[in-house]
Structure formats: C-alpha cells, structure tokens
Design brief:
By secondary structure, this protein is of the alpha/beta class. The chain has helices at residues 25-31, 75-89, 110-118, 140-149, 177-187, 191-194, and strands at residues 2-5, 46-49, 96-101, 125-130, 162-164. The protein has a 3-stranded parallel beta sheet, with helices on one face. It is globular, with a radius of gyration of 20 Å. The relative contact order is 0.09.
Length: 202
C-alpha cells in the first residue's frame, strides 16, 4: 500500500515536502489486514515523496524486538517482527540504524547481536544511544555507553560510528521546539553529555 506525495506547481521548492497524499482506506485496510485489535502485519504502509530535488532514499521504521507475550503482543507477532527485521537487515544495500537505550545494560541489547549477524564486518551499521541521561550519574551503565560512543568498546566498534540522542521526557512532549533544543543543549553541556564534547584542534 502506498501513500504517494508529489510536488505541487507554483510552490517554493525549498523545504516543501507536503503536497498531496492519496490512500484509499478500504484497500489499505484489506491489504494490511487491519482490524480493531492491535496486531503486527507483514503488510507495508509506504509514504513516498517524489520530486526533482528529492534524494533517492528509503527509510524503514521497523517494530522493536520483544521476547515476552502480552495481551496485545502475542508470539505470532514476535514471528512477524523477527521476519521483518531479518528481511531488511539482510539486504546488503541496507544501512542498519541500531538504537540502544542507555538505561538498559549494553550486553542486553539484542539489536546489536542482530546487526552483527547480518553485518559481521560492521561496515553498514550506525549506532544511536538514547536515554543516556537516565543511565544514572557515575553508574556502570553510563561509563559503558560513554566508552561505546568514544570507540573504547572493542566489541562494538562501527565503521559508521555511534551517536547520542537526547529524548524528551514524558512531561516535555507538549513543549515547543525552542524548549526542546534548550534542554538538549543543556544536556550536552552538563553531566554525561558534556563528556562527549571533544576539543577542537587549533
């Protein structure tokens, strides 16, 4: 199923990504087997942006890996999620964007094992660390993830490097962009965030 967007005439080209979207609800519902209950599906909802200045790039948002069944996530769903993850990670032209949360132990991050399985030479994996501010000041978790992003963790060195993101807290979801950016800047100037800033050579 595809939602396709194209550029409208007489509109400035710079920064204009929204144009027109057409998706017929019934075929989408039928093809993706969407029902009232929450379940994973192998069906793909694709939003495509086309235009003379648009790069040829596909971003695929895959479900998170899980291990235990719940009311709205059964083991059939796990099989579908594993299938989707393996099918995309195994494509040699794919860049694997592996996100890990620093409030969980590094050795517990299953996505890294999955990435290594499909990219043993670590040539097409980008690492992103979230929630470093929740790792606990001075904790072993904090030190491990700081070592990771600085390239001191020999088992998890990536050719495309590691990056750190600062997530909004639950009570910050309604904050504006200015507040979000201010909080992010404060994080990277204090505490664990400040340890990631490298001095600029003269």
């Amino acid at each position: 199923t595809t939602c396709r967007t194209g550029r409208l005439p007489n509109r400035p080209s710079a920064g204009q990504a929204s144009i027109r979207v057409f998706c017929r609800y019934y075929p989408r519902k039928k093809l993706m087997s969407i029902r009232n209950e929450k379940r994973f599906s192998k069906g793909i909802l694709r939003v495509q942006i086309v235009g003379p200045e648009v790069s040829s790039l596909t971003l695929v948002d895959l479900p998170g890996i899980f291990h235990t069944a719940a009311v709205d996530q059964d083991f059939r769903g796990k099989e579908i999620v594993d299938f989707l993850i393996n099918s995309y990670m195994s494509q040699l032209e794919s860049i694997i964007f592996a996100m890990v949360a620093a409030n969980n132990q590094l050795v517990s991050q299953v996505v890294l094992r999955k990435a290594e399985e499909h990219d043993p030479n670590r040539e097409r994996t980008i690492g992103a660390i979230t929630k470093l501010d929740l790792a606990g000041p001075g904790s072993a978790n904090e030190r491990n993830y700081l070592d990771l992003v600085k390239g001191r963790e020999s088992m998890q060195k990536l050719s495309l490097s590691w990056y750190v993101l600062r997530n909004r807290f639950e009570d910050e979801r309604s904050s504006d962009a200015y507040t979000r950016d201010a909080n992010e800047e404060r994080f990277f100037q204090t505490g664990a965030g400040s340890m990631l800033i490298l001095p600029i050579a003269a």
